[in-house]
Design goal:
Keywords: ATP-binding, Kinase, Magnesium, Metal-binding, Nucleotide-binding, Transferase. Helix content is 28%, strand content 20%. It contains 8 helices and 11 strands. It is an alpha+beta fold and 293 residues long. The chain has a domain at 16-67 and 268-290: 3-Layer(aba) Sandwich (Rossmann fold). Residues 206-210 and 286-293 have low confidence and may be disordered.
């Protein structure tokens, strides 16, 4: 694309209308959207992008991914409602894909506390709570997610259009159900689950580790349903497998993840863009609101 002068980096300090026209716009504005709630500079950058007015004037332009779909996933409450609906959609087809339990007041033996906002630097700051007294350590608005012992293994599914890739990462180690006297553990999910992570929180003995990969059929069914529900093409799903029930559990949906460990990412992205443009040229291409379908 660069050799043929087909690729242009958008300058967010200038109105979008003066930089096009574009066939496809690939963007990751999630952090800008979050920061725009409190930062005037981010508000201006978002205003300059003018996606809605630009797309209205250029309906053939494809947006990867639609802003309304991305904005919905910035709120973990909305994200978890999607997971709940997902479980019902997959019931019967794939009963081994539950979603974890989320609410304001629910408190299982152990719980992970996350910020309500799903993106930005603070969204990676989490805590593991072992008792009701630990609730005094949390700072709302936040969500509580029941903790499932999963052998310190996180399965990250990266989606690029109709392709997906599953990568194994480190995760929190197992904690016994009787550990109610432990103090709240604060951690950063990036530091725990990066490929190069080496933390005491991820250390697990050989006899408790569960390294079995998730069922390829279950992951394919999950990704297919999520693409329909989200209307997005570039997203990730975090999965864990219970060491006790061997059940696959969805714990997060990520907007335009880093795709670390996916060597085919750029070729897959280009392939998806070509597919979208071919559909558009054939007269059956998706609109900006349904790009991920």
């Amino acid at each position: 694309c660069r050799k043929q002068s087909l690729l242009l980096q958008i300058d967010l300090t200038r109105p979008l209308v003066h930089q096009g026209p574009f066939d496809v716009i690939v963007h990751k504005l999630s952090d800008v959207i979050v920061e725009a709630e409190q930062d005037s500079q981010s508000q201006q950058l978002l205003a300059n992008f003018q996606v809605r007015s630009y797309v209205s004037a250029h309906p053939a332009t494809v947006l990867l991914d639609p802003l309304p779909a991305m904005t919905r996933l910035l709120d973990r409450f909305a994200s978890y409602r999607i997971m709940s609906e997902l479980r019902e959609s997959l019931r019967g087809e794939c009963d081994r894909i539950p979603t974890n339990t989320f609410s304001f007041l629910f408190f299982p033996p152990h719980a992970v506390c996350k910020t309500r906002v799903a993106h930005g630097s603070l969204s990676h700051e989490m805590s593991l709570i072992f008792s009701g007294g630990g609730l005094e350590d949390i700072r709302p608005p936040c969500v509580l997610q029941s903790f499932v012992n999963h052998g310190a293994v996180l399965h990250k599914v990266f989606v690029v259009g109709d392709r997906h890739f599953c990568v194994e990462r480190p995760s929190l180690k197992n904690f016994p159900s009787g550990a109610c006297d432990r103090k709240t553990i604060f951690f950063n999910s990036h530091e725990v689950s990066k490929p190069e992570s080496n933390s005491d929180l991820t250390a697990v003995s050989n006899h408790t580790a569960s390294r079995a990969p998730p069922s390829s059929e279950a992951v394919a069914a999950l990704v297919g349903e999520l693409r329909v529900q989200l209307g997005m093409a570039l997203f990730g799903v975090d999965l864990i497998i219970s060491i006790h029930t061997h059940t696959l559990t969805v714990i997060d949906i990520n907007i335009f993840p880093g795709y670390e460990g996916v060597p085919q990412f750029f070729s897959s992205l280009l392939s998806h863009i070509e597919s979208v443009l071919d559909q558009r040229q054939a007269g059956g291409g998706p609109s900006a609101a349904t790009t991920g379908l």
